[in-house]
Amino acid sequence: MIEIKQLTKSFGDRTVLQGIDAVFETGKTNLIIGQSGSGKTVLMNDLVGLLEPTSGQILYDGRDFVTMDKRQRILLRREMGMTFQGSALFDSLNVLENVRFPLDMFSSMSSRERDRRAMECIERVNLKGAETKYPDEISGGMQKRVAIARAIVLNPKYLFCDEPNSGLDPKTSLVIDRLLSDITHDYGITTIINTHDMNSVMGIGEKIIFIYQGHKEWEGTKDQVMDAKNKRLNDFVFASDLFRKVRKAELDEDNNK
To answer: CB 3.0–4.6 Å: which of 38, 106, 128, 166 could bond 34 by disulfide?
Structure first.
């Protein structure tokens, strides 16, 4: 579990996050949603230590990341896995080498053990047979799966995914969503996904936090989104034609009962 208390982040005179409280639950897909510029990316960067919060607490199973010294942070980061918006694979390494990279950096395993563990993760994301291919030889969706395999190769307790469906077609996005959901439940990981994809929200959003202009505006589950009374959330959710049509159909059905 990750808990944040009164988290605030400012850049000079500009406050980007203001007094955010939230709990990201273990074994669930926790989604952070919001418009561009809302502060959700800054929030994730604070969580993983790429940025330092101005004030507040970030508790990893009770351990405050903010007050840790350098050594403690390094140890905690080994419990984290992360996928980036652009996959961030090494072009000069093949799939197996990309997935094995964290093991080469941080593991005391033998070379054979590292290969075996990397292959386990490659198979887990359904890429067996692609291990000798290079990033420019595989599709964008496959690159995302390689990034997920690399993120879980060290058996993380916490998994962070920044816009995992960015640049993907709807069908491939569903594959990535299902994969992240299955991995979260199978391994009991605390997964946090930063997204603006409403299909992801409605598909795998077990815990959803909506950020608006640096504040936590709403939180709930995918089952509560459609009936939420928060106008700003509704404006965000029903911005797409698809969800406006879904909502209209639901209201028409209720009126005809």
So the answer is: 38
